[in-house]
Protein backbone atom coordinates (compact mmCIF):
# COMPACT_ATOMS: atom_id res chain seq x y z
CA UNK A 1 0.00 0.00 0.00
CA UNK A 2 2.80 2.40 0.87
CA UNK A 3 4.45 1.66 -2.48
CA UNK A 4 1.26 2.31 -4.45
CA UNK A 5 0.63 5.52 -2.53
CA UNK A 6 4.13 6.70 -3.32
CA UNK A 7 3.96 5.68 -6.97
CA UNK A 8 0.31 6.04 -8.03
CA UNK A 9 -0.62 4.59 -11.41
CA UNK A 10 -3.47 4.65 -13.86
CA UNK A 11 -5.85 1.81 -14.66
CA UNK A 12 -4.04 1.32 -17.96
CA UNK A 13 -0.72 0.91 -16.18
CA UNK A 14 -2.25 -1.52 -13.69
CA UNK A 15 -3.70 -3.62 -16.53
CA UNK A 16 -0.37 -3.63 -18.36
CA UNK A 17 1.63 -4.67 -15.29
CA UNK A 18 -0.86 -7.37 -14.31
CA UNK A 19 -0.88 -8.91 -17.77
CA UNK A 20 2.89 -8.58 -18.14
CA UNK A 21 3.37 -10.83 -15.12
CA UNK A 22 1.09 -13.50 -16.61
CA UNK A 23 2.59 -13.19 -20.09
CA UNK A 24 6.14 -13.31 -18.73
CA UNK A 25 5.33 -16.44 -16.74
CA UNK A 26 3.77 -18.16 -19.75
CA UNK A 27 6.63 -17.23 -22.07
CA UNK A 28 9.28 -18.28 -19.55
CA UNK A 29 7.72 -21.68 -18.90
CA UNK A 30 7.18 -22.26 -22.61
CA UNK A 31 10.65 -21.35 -23.81
CA UNK A 32 12.24 -23.29 -20.96
CA UNK A 33 10.44 -26.36 -22.22
CA UNK A 34 11.31 -25.72 -25.88
CA UNK A 35 15.00 -25.03 -25.20
CA UNK A 36 15.32 -27.64 -22.43
CA UNK A 37 16.72 -25.05 -20.05
CA UNK A 38 17.44 -26.57 -16.67
CA UNK A 39 17.24 -30.16 -17.90
CA UNK A 40 19.86 -32.51 -16.50
CA UNK A 41 21.52 -35.65 -17.81
CA UNK A 42 21.22 -38.95 -16.00
CA UNK A 43 23.05 -42.13 -16.91
CA UNK A 44 22.77 -45.79 -16.05
CA UNK A 45 25.91 -47.95 -16.19
CA UNK A 46 26.06 -51.72 -15.79
CA UNK A 47 29.63 -52.65 -14.71
CA UNK A 48 29.16 -56.30 -15.61
CA UNK A 49 28.21 -55.76 -19.24
CA UNK A 50 29.71 -52.29 -19.66
CA UNK A 51 26.28 -51.16 -20.85
CA UNK A 52 25.57 -47.47 -20.47
CA UNK A 53 22.43 -45.53 -21.25
CA UNK A 54 21.99 -41.77 -20.75
CA UNK A 55 18.93 -39.57 -20.98
CA UNK A 56 17.84 -36.07 -20.06
CA UNK A 57 15.10 -35.27 -17.59
CA UNK A 58 13.46 -32.16 -16.17
CA UNK A 59 13.96 -31.57 -12.44
CA UNK A 60 10.82 -30.65 -10.54
CA UNK A 61 12.15 -27.22 -9.65
CA UNK A 62 12.99 -26.19 -13.24
CA UNK A 63 9.45 -25.15 -14.36
CA UNK A 64 8.80 -23.40 -11.04
CA UNK A 65 12.05 -21.48 -11.29
CA UNK A 66 11.20 -20.44 -14.84
CA UNK A 67 7.73 -19.34 -13.77
CA UNK A 68 9.10 -17.26 -10.90
CA UNK A 69 11.77 -15.58 -13.01
CA UNK A 70 9.38 -14.94 -15.90
CA UNK A 71 6.74 -13.46 -13.62
CA UNK A 72 9.21 -11.13 -11.91
CA UNK A 73 10.72 -10.04 -15.22
CA UNK A 74 7.22 -9.45 -16.56
CA UNK A 75 6.27 -7.29 -13.59
CA UNK A 76 9.50 -5.29 -13.81
CA UNK A 77 9.28 -4.88 -17.57
CA UNK A 78 5.59 -4.04 -17.48
CA UNK A 79 6.19 -1.41 -14.80
CA UNK A 80 9.01 0.28 -16.69
CA UNK A 81 7.26 0.23 -20.07
CA UNK A 82 3.85 1.29 -18.73
CA UNK A 83 5.34 4.21 -16.83
CA UNK A 84 7.29 5.28 -19.91
CA UNK A 85 4.34 5.02 -22.32
CA UNK A 86 1.39 5.59 -19.93
CA UNK A 87 -1.09 3.48 -21.94
CA UNK A 88 -4.80 4.08 -21.66
CA UNK A 89 -7.01 1.37 -20.20
CA UNK A 90 -8.25 0.60 -23.70
CA UNK A 91 -4.77 0.28 -25.17
CA UNK A 92 -3.59 -1.98 -22.35
CA UNK A 93 -6.69 -4.15 -22.65
CA UNK A 94 -6.31 -4.40 -26.42
CA UNK A 95 -2.66 -5.45 -26.12
CA UNK A 96 -3.65 -8.07 -23.55
CA UNK A 97 -6.30 -9.54 -25.82
CA UNK A 98 -3.96 -9.28 -28.81
CA UNK A 99 -1.43 -11.53 -27.10
CA UNK A 100 -4.15 -14.02 -26.15
CA UNK A 101 -5.56 -14.14 -29.67
CA UNK A 102 -2.04 -14.43 -31.05
CA UNK A 103 -1.59 -17.49 -28.84
CA UNK A 104 -4.70 -19.09 -30.33
CA UNK A 105 -3.76 -18.31 -33.93
CA UNK A 106 -0.20 -19.49 -33.31
CA UNK A 107 -1.53 -22.78 -31.98
CA UNK A 108 -3.88 -23.15 -34.95
CA UNK A 109 -1.05 -22.36 -37.38
CA UNK A 110 1.12 -24.98 -35.71
CA UNK A 111 -1.58 -27.61 -36.15
CA UNK A 112 -1.96 -26.68 -39.82
CA UNK A 113 1.82 -26.89 -40.24
CA UNK A 114 1.89 -30.43 -38.79
CA UNK A 115 3.95 -29.25 -35.82
CA UNK A 116 4.03 -31.39 -32.70
CA UNK A 117 5.44 -31.30 -29.18
CA UNK A 118 8.09 -28.56 -28.92
CA UNK A 119 7.37 -27.44 -32.47
CA UNK A 120 3.72 -26.81 -31.68
CA UNK A 121 4.66 -24.99 -28.48
CA UNK A 122 7.07 -22.82 -30.46
CA UNK A 123 4.31 -21.83 -32.87
CA UNK A 124 2.10 -20.96 -29.91
CA UNK A 125 4.74 -18.84 -28.18
CA UNK A 126 5.68 -16.99 -31.36
CA UNK A 127 2.01 -16.36 -32.08
CA UNK A 128 1.61 -14.83 -28.64
CA UNK A 129 4.62 -12.59 -29.26
CA UNK A 130 3.35 -11.54 -32.69
CA UNK A 131 -0.12 -10.77 -31.37
CA UNK A 132 1.23 -8.64 -28.54
CA UNK A 133 3.59 -6.75 -30.85
CA UNK A 134 0.96 -6.15 -33.54
CA UNK A 135 -1.63 -4.76 -31.15
CA UNK A 136 0.98 -2.70 -29.30
CA UNK A 137 1.88 -0.97 -32.57
CA UNK A 138 -1.69 -0.37 -33.74
CA UNK A 139 -3.92 0.12 -30.69
CA UNK A 140 -2.21 3.33 -29.53
CA UNK A 141 -2.78 4.92 -32.95
CA UNK A 142 -6.40 3.77 -32.90
CA UNK A 143 -7.08 5.15 -29.41
CA UNK A 144 -9.28 2.16 -28.63
CA UNK A 145 -11.40 2.08 -25.49
CA UNK A 146 -11.62 -0.82 -23.06
CA UNK A 147 -15.23 -1.37 -24.10
CA UNK A 148 -14.25 -1.65 -27.75
CA UNK A 149 -11.49 -4.11 -26.89
CA UNK A 150 -13.94 -6.32 -24.98
CA UNK A 151 -16.49 -6.06 -27.79
CA UNK A 152 -13.95 -7.11 -30.41
CA UNK A 153 -12.89 -10.08 -28.30
CA UNK A 154 -16.52 -11.05 -27.71
CA UNK A 155 -17.11 -11.05 -31.47
CA UNK A 156 -14.02 -13.20 -31.97
CA UNK A 157 -15.21 -15.67 -29.35
CA UNK A 158 -18.65 -15.78 -30.93
CA UNK A 159 -17.09 -16.40 -34.32
CA UNK A 160 -14.93 -19.19 -32.91
CA UNK A 161 -17.92 -20.82 -31.23
CA UNK A 162 -19.80 -20.56 -34.49
CA UNK A 163 -16.90 -22.31 -36.20
CA UNK A 164 -16.99 -25.12 -33.66
CA UNK A 165 -20.69 -25.38 -34.36
CA UNK A 166 -19.92 -25.80 -38.05
CA UNK A 167 -17.45 -28.55 -37.18
CA UNK A 168 -20.18 -30.39 -35.32
CA UNK A 169 -22.84 -29.67 -37.92
CA UNK A 170 -20.80 -31.04 -40.82
CA UNK A 171 -19.17 -33.74 -38.66
CA UNK A 172 -15.65 -32.67 -39.59
CA UNK A 173 -13.17 -35.46 -38.87
CA UNK A 174 -9.94 -34.06 -40.30
CA UNK A 175 -7.94 -32.39 -37.53
CA UNK A 176 -6.61 -29.59 -39.72
CA UNK A 177 -10.03 -28.71 -41.07
CA UNK A 178 -11.55 -28.88 -37.59
CA UNK A 179 -9.02 -26.29 -36.39
CA UNK A 180 -9.01 -24.15 -39.53
CA UNK A 181 -12.76 -23.49 -39.48
CA UNK A 182 -12.99 -21.92 -35.98
CA UNK A 183 -9.70 -20.12 -36.63
CA UNK A 184 -11.13 -18.49 -39.74
CA UNK A 185 -14.50 -17.69 -38.17
CA UNK A 186 -12.91 -16.20 -35.06
CA UNK A 187 -10.61 -14.11 -37.27
CA UNK A 188 -13.63 -12.95 -39.25
CA UNK A 189 -15.42 -11.99 -36.04
CA UNK A 190 -12.41 -10.05 -34.79
CA UNK A 191 -11.90 -8.24 -38.09
CA UNK A 192 -15.55 -7.34 -38.56
CA UNK A 193 -15.93 -6.10 -35.00
CA UNK A 194 -12.71 -4.09 -35.27
CA UNK A 195 -13.96 -2.38 -38.43
CA UNK A 196 -17.39 -1.69 -36.96
CA UNK A 197 -16.16 -0.39 -33.62
CA UNK A 198 -13.46 1.70 -35.31
CA UNK A 199 -16.13 3.25 -37.53
CA UNK A 200 -18.26 3.95 -34.47
CA UNK A 201 -15.35 5.68 -32.75
CA UNK A 202 -14.94 7.89 -35.83
CA UNK A 203 -18.63 8.60 -36.36
CA UNK A 204 -19.45 8.91 -32.66
CA UNK A 205 -20.92 6.46 -30.18
CA UNK A 206 -24.53 7.48 -30.77
CA UNK A 207 -25.16 4.65 -33.17
CA UNK A 208 -24.64 6.03 -36.65
CA UNK A 209 -25.29 3.42 -39.29
CA UNK A 210 -23.74 0.60 -37.25
CA UNK A 211 -25.68 -1.16 -34.57
CA UNK A 212 -25.67 -4.45 -32.72
CA UNK A 213 -23.06 -7.07 -33.51
CA UNK A 214 -25.74 -9.76 -33.22
CA UNK A 215 -27.64 -9.45 -36.50
CA UNK A 216 -27.31 -7.94 -39.96
CA UNK A 217 -30.21 -5.46 -39.72
CA UNK A 218 -31.33 -3.89 -36.45
CA UNK A 219 -34.42 -1.84 -35.71
CA UNK A 220 -34.54 0.19 -32.52
CA UNK A 221 -37.70 2.24 -32.33
CA UNK A 222 -37.75 4.02 -35.68
CA UNK A 223 -34.00 3.82 -36.36
CA UNK A 224 -32.45 1.22 -38.64
CA UNK A 225 -28.80 0.20 -38.44
CA UNK A 226 -26.44 -2.46 -39.75
CA UNK A 227 -24.52 -4.92 -37.61
CA UNK A 228 -22.46 -8.07 -37.74
CA UNK A 229 -24.47 -11.31 -38.09
CA UNK A 230 -22.57 -13.69 -35.83
CA UNK A 231 -23.24 -17.42 -36.32
CA UNK A 232 -24.54 -19.00 -33.13
CA UNK A 233 -24.73 -22.74 -32.41
CA UNK A 234 -28.27 -23.77 -31.56
CA UNK A 235 -30.41 -26.86 -31.16
CA UNK A 236 -33.46 -27.31 -33.37
CA UNK A 237 -36.08 -29.92 -34.08
CA UNK A 238 -35.55 -31.96 -37.21
CA UNK A 239 -38.68 -33.04 -39.10
CA UNK A 240 -37.52 -36.65 -39.26
CA UNK A 241 -36.98 -36.66 -35.47
CA UNK A 242 -40.09 -34.75 -34.47
CA UNK A 243 -41.97 -37.78 -33.22
CA UNK A 244 -39.12 -38.90 -30.98
CA UNK A 245 -38.69 -35.37 -29.58
CA UNK A 246 -35.01 -35.37 -30.48
CA UNK A 247 -33.05 -32.31 -31.53
CA UNK A 248 -30.06 -31.74 -33.77
CA UNK A 249 -27.27 -29.21 -33.54
CA UNK A 250 -27.24 -26.41 -36.09
CA UNK A 251 -26.08 -22.86 -36.65
CA UNK A 252 -28.35 -19.82 -36.46
CA UNK A 253 -27.38 -16.61 -38.30
CA UNK A 254 -29.51 -13.66 -37.10
CA UNK A 255 -30.46 -11.37 -39.97
CA UNK A 256 -33.02 -9.07 -38.32
CA UNK A 257 -33.64 -7.95 -34.75
CA UNK A 258 -35.95 -5.24 -33.52
CA UNK A 259 -37.10 -3.51 -30.38
CA UNK A 260 -40.19 -1.35 -30.13
Tell me the domain tally: 2
Radius of gyration: 24 Å
The sequence of SSEs as H and E is HHEEHHHHHEEEEE
Strand tally: 7
What assembly state would you assign to the polypeptide chains in this entry? single chain
What is the terminal separation in angstroms?
Answer: 50 Å
Proportion of beta-strand residues: 5-15%
Q: Record the strand order, biggest sheet.
A: 4-3-7
Rounded mean pLDDT score: 81
Specify the helix fraction band.
55-70%
Give start-end ranges of low-pLDDT stretches. Answer: 202-213
Q: What does the overall shape look like?
A: flat
Counted by DSSP, the helix tally is 7
Q: What does the largest sheet look like?
A: 3 strands, mixed
Care to describe what's here?
60% of the residues lie in helices and 15% in strands. It has 260 residues and is α+β, with helices and mostly antiparallel strands. It folds into two domains: 10-87, no CATH class; 88-198, no CATH class. The strands form three sheets. Strands 4-3-7 form a three-stranded mixed β-sheet, with no helix packed on it. A hairpin with a 4-residue loop joins strand 1 and strand 2. 31% of the residues are buried.
Write the layout of secondary structure elements.
Blueprint: H1 2-6, H2 11-35, E1 40-46, E2 51-57, H3 61-85, H4 89-112, H5 118-142, H6 146-169, H7 175-203, E3 217-220, E4 223-226, E5 232-237, E6 247-252, E7 256-259
Parallel strand pairs: 3-7
Antiparallel strand pairs: 1-2, 3-4, 5-6
Helix pairs in contact: 2-3, 2-4, 2-5, 4-5, 4-6, 4-7, 6-7
Amino acid sequence: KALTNRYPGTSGQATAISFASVWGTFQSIGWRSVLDIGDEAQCYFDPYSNYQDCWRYTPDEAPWTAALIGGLVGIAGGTVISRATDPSAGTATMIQFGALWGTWFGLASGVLADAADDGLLTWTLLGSDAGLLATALTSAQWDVTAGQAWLITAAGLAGGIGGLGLDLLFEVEDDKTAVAIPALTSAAGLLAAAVLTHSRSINGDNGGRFGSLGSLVNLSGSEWSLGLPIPQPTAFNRPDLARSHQTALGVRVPLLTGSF
